[in-house]
Design a protein that fits this description.
Blueprint lengths: L4 H15 L1 H30 L6
């Protein structure tokens, strides 16, 4: 059993009715910042694991 496009549209409509667009926009912004922060931390850990790069 898989979820198709009509089901996703119905779920989105219900969520919009329950929370409103302004709260969903804030949630999306917060989620984007969290993902960006996590990605930056992972990249900085990779850089520190490789050690300083020789710049000649």
């Amino acid at each position: 059993m898989s979820i198709g496009v009509p089901e996703l549209v119905l779920i989105l409509a219900i969520v919009l009715l329950l929370f409103g667009t302004s709260r969903l926009a804030g949630l999306g912004k917060g989620l984007g910042q969290a993902i960006r922060g996590f990605k930056d931390e992972v990249e900085s850990k990779d850089d520190s694991k490789n050690g300083p790069k020789d710049q000649r």
